[in-house]
Each structure stands twice: as structure tokens, then as C-alpha cells.
UniProtKB/TrEMBL annotation, chain A:
GO terms for cellular component: plasma membrane. Keywords: ATP-binding, Cell membrane, Membrane, Nucleotide-binding, Transmembrane, Transmembrane helix. The chain crosses the membrane at residues 21-42, 264-295, 316-345, 357-377. Pfam families: FtsX, MacB_PCD. InterPro entries: ABC3_permease_C, MacB_PCD, Macrolide_Exporter_MacB. Belongs to the ABC-4 integral membrane protein family. Its main location: membrane. It comes from the Bacteria. It comes from Micromonospora saelicesensis. This is Macrolide export ATP-binding/permease protein Ma cB 1/2. Residues 21-237 form the MacB-like periplasmic core domain. GO terms for molecular function: ATP binding; transmembrane transporter activity.
Amino acid sequence: MRVAEAWRVALDALRANRLRSALTMLGVIIGVASVVLLVAIGTGTKQKVEQQVEGLGSNLLLVVPGRIEVGNAPVVSPLTLKDVDAVTRVVGDPDRVAVTVASGATARAGARSDFTTVQGVLETTPAVFTRSLARGRYLTGTDVDTSRRVAVLGDSVARALFPDRDPLGQQVALAGVRFRVIGVFAPLGQSLGVDRDDEVHVPVTAAQRLWGTQRVDGIAVKAPDRERIDELGERIVAELNRRHPDTEFSAVTQQQILGVLGDILGVLTGVLAAIAGISLLVGGVGVSNIMLVSVRERTREIGLRKAVGARPRDIGVQFLLEAVLLTTIGGLTGMALGVGTALLVDALSPIPAAITWWSLALAFGVSAVVGIVFGVVPAQRAGRLDPVVALRTE
Amino acid sequence: MTEPAVADSRGDRPAGERVPAIEAVDVSRTYQLDGVSVEALRGVSLTVQPGDYVALVGPSGSGKSTLMHLLGGLDRPTGGRLVIGGRDVNALAPPEMATLRNETIGFVFQAFHLLPRTSAVENVALPLVYRGVSARQRRERAAAMLGRVGLGHRLDHRPNQMSGGEQQRVAIARALVTEPTVLLADEPTGNLDSVTGAALLELLEQLNAESGVALVMVTHDQEVAARAHRRITMRDGVVVADSAASAHPPSAGTADLPAHDRPPSVDHGRPATLVSAPSAEPRSASGSGPGHPSGGSGGAAGATGRLPHDVERPGGTP
């Protein structure tokens, strides 16, 4: 009964000072909205990156020279196609092994040119990485074995060089050497700001001849199953270490890449949320301030309520509820604003944003806690008011 | 919170067994203002019986308000013993004091102190909220009480839609909705014109007579004070006169009130002094002695600190 009265009174007090209540809530609204929005952007980015890494193909094992750690300089690869053969023997299935030797090069077709990444690859690439073609065909084993000068263009390269005609069968000059276009990839889009369609695939043998090298930058293996992927990686690394005792090799799985990326993005999201949290805190101080004003304004009312039998707790609860109502109504409004903005950002900008239920629950919970924390002092002050003094106040 | 038991000091007992509604014994109240002690009350002893009609008079700063706050349980004494509704306030924590006020005391203030933006019936029901009465019962009881003060037709009007007299009637209804033992009215007609004030006073007197609630009223108005059955005059923090008017029919003979007919001097071992005895010491104890002709319930109240020259109606006989 007393709590019902406290609710009624608290709501009435907020209604009686609509503008003031709204302005006080604004602090909380902005705080909660920014927490929700920034967490949504952080989460959305993380999800998108994860999708893209997983989109590379499942059970992927990337074998590269050197140690994969942040801050380590890339190592010049000692790997050759002989090493690839050795790895294939370890894996036991040539269809599961892909290689790359990549370099930047200018692609030219008639008067048009485009600086792109040329990748020397095996015919296994579409099976190991999940790639599909929009037109034409991919490289074949014969193309690789005979170093045939054929190329498969990424979507943006194809559009840059052949904006108004079919690229299939056309000639492109890569680093001055002519290749025949046999296929065009289906578009992949951007990943972390990198255009994944800005590449040209040619047979690895042709690429090596183009650059006058024997090396291979890295080997990718599609493991038969997830359970034995680490064990397979260790066997491959052991074989490569045996063949190149002076070089360290690493075999990393998608899960490891995801873990590293997830950690980085998680920290980023946390930092963003914390910064937004500060504005929520400032909003809480505003609530505290207004509650003190409210207590002072209603000193006579407090005195009267005490005179007719309100205990200190009854008065305290009334004012605490008022503070909590301010912050939770503000919190709910802020959540709606944050979700709305996040959806707009996701739809209208390249920044991905994803709403998670936990960020909403957290934002609401925090706003309620802010109300309690910043409402306690004014509520206590109200509860302890001397009724004689309170009644005398004009 | 459940409906509290009716205070055991209700006047529904046989007259001879009546328990005082309020009993103050040598009560003092000292304030600390900027490190200086100010004695607002300096040893006041008095008893309010159920059904009493008391006017509390005295110049500004005489301690009337302080005494009212103490009698109403809004404040507690710094010295002496104060028993309200059979409970010693010095033994009560603030929440218990609040409950005591809720159960025993009704307040009427000069400035009405109604909640704005709140209907008359809700204002009247407010004390019942803190008693844990259900919303429906609150409204029923508040409406009935508003009917008794003549505002049965204005239940849902707000204070700003009512005249001063009506507002004060709402306040009276609020004070009485809990069926208190004592109604404390602080200048209840102070903000009203004389006609409205007179009507309000009649209402208070009628309620006092009908329900047996003790009416203790602080007033500056000599006419108002003259209508009370008993008049307590204060000056400089002491009671200088406490008299019962003859108009008040004796509710019980003094002989039937052994608990109250003793002079206060016996109570706290002070040397008794006759009322007429001149004394320069303001604290010198005195009171209506045994067999005093005053009689009536007013005679049951002892008052110390009486100054002879301030006794306006010695013996309470006109």
C-alpha cells in the first residue's frame, strides 16, 4: 500500500515538472543511447569480420613462414613448389592444398589500367577457399602444369578494365605480359576496408615465371575435419621445419585468427562502451542534483507527510522511486534512441551495427542502478528531515 | 502494515479509569543555535485528558509552538518525561514516533498544509496510506469524514479550487480521519476571515463534543481562547497559567482521579507553593492542590512554573 502510494507520488512529481524531468532524463537518455549505439557498432563489426573469416572456407589451415604475432615482421618465404608437394604428401589429398605467391602489378587492357594484386595459385583454390565464379571457368591443372598465361579477374578489376564489354577471351597485360581472361569471380565485397575483389588469379607457375622467382608465399590446407586440424598443422610444420631448419613456420586455423581479431574488437567495443558510460554517469549526477532540488522544494510536503505518520523510510522510498523512475524512463527512451540510430547506421552507412539483447539489458540495468546510486543521498536527506523544521519552511 | 490497535488511551473507558491522552512532566526543550543553547521550554508539566478543549495562549516566543510540536510527537524533549497515548516518547525511535503520530494525533495547521494537485478526498486519506489501509477503504473513510465537515459534495476538488475555509475543513477532516485521541490545531483560524473562522471554530467544537477527541488549540485570538474550557498561558518557556473554565461540565470529580489530582510538586518532589504565594523564581512549582474548587477534567492537569500574577482565573471560578 505504501509502495503504491510512493509510485503514485513519484509519477505525479515527474508529471508536475515535465520540462525539468525531461531535461534531467536527457542526460540519461544520451548516455544509454550512446552505450547501446557504440556497443552495437562494435558488435556489428566483430560479427562481420567473423563472417568474413569464416567465409574463407571451413577447417582452413594457413601455413606461413615466421611466427604469426602482432608486431612481427614478415619473413621472406623459403618455400617452393617442392615444399608444396611435401605438404601435399603429409595431407594425402592434393585437392586440399592451395598456395599463393602474390605481388602488386599493373593490369592493362587497351587504354585502361588498374593496379591490382596478382596471385599465383593452384587450380585447387576455389575448393580450399570458398570462391565462386560469375562467368567463365577457373584455372585447371593443365593451366598450372603448362604455365599457361590465363587469368581469372576479380569483380572490381573486371569492371575497371572492361566497363562496357565482356572480359572473357580478352587480353590483359600483367606487368607487361599478356594473359587471356578465362573467368570472372563473383563479387565478395569489402572486408575491414579492403576490396576483396581487387585481385587477379593466374597459375602459380606463370606467376613465378613472371616475377622470376621460385618461391611460394604461403600454403593453405583444408583439413578433412575440425578435430584433427591442430594435429595436421603440427605435422605440416614439422615436415617444413625438417626441410628448412633455419626458418620457423606457423600453422594457424580460422579459430585462432578469429580469436585474435575477436580480442582486439572486444577491447575496442569495451573502450567505446566505457566512454559512453561516462556520459551515463554524468547523467546520473544530473539526476542527483535535481532530486536534491526536488527534496528542497517539497520540504513542506515531507513535513506534512511525516506529521500524519510517514516514517523516514516511507519518505526515502518515495524519493528513491522518483530518482529510479527518472533514470529508467530515461533509460528506456535512450535504448529506443540507441536502437533506432544503430539500425539507421547499419542500413545507411557502411558501418555495421548489431543490437544484442545483453547490451540492452545492461543499459537498462545500469540506468536503474544509476537511479538508485544517485537517488540514495537525496532520499536519505528527505527521510531524515526534521518534521518541525520541514513544516516551518515556506 | 496492518491496522493498528486503537490507542488504549481512548476516552471510551469509565471516567474513573481514564488514562491521560498526553502527559508531560517537567518537560524542557533546549535548542542549539550556532553553539548557543536556547531554552524554548523550561520545565512544563501538564496533562491533556481525552475530550479536553484547551486553548494554548501566550506571546510569540513563549514556547507555545515548541510545546505543540512536543505534544504532537513531532519533536522530543531534551529533559523531563513526555507520554503520548501511553508511550514514553523518549523510548521511541523515529519510525515508532511516526506511527504514534499516525495513531494518536491529528494536526491542523494555520497554513492548511494540503498537498497541491491532490483532490480533497486524497488529501484526507493521506494518513490512512501510512496506516496501510486499502485504497477503497481509504476513499470511503475519507469521503465520510469530508461529509462530517460539510464537504461531502467537494470530494474531488483540489485545494486551489477551494476557499480558505474549505481548505481548512479538508485539513480538519484529514486530522480526524484516523480517529486520533488528540487534535492539535495551530492557529487554525489564523489565515481565515472572522466569519469563516468562527464557523470553523464551531465545527472544531462540535467535533470535540461529538467524538470526544481532545482539542488543543494554539491561538492569539482572545475570543477564541475564551471559548475553550481550559486555557493554558505560556511565557518564556513556562506555563504561567492553566485554568479550566466553569462552562465545562465536570466529567468526573477530582476525588475520582487519584492519578491526576495530586499537585505536581508531589510528583517530582518539589516544594509545593501556594498559588498566591509571591515568588521571584519563575520555576517555583505550584498547581491546583487537592480539593481545589476548580474540578472538571481541566483541574486534573497540573502545571508547574506558574507565576501568580499571570493566573488569570485562579481556581477556574469566574
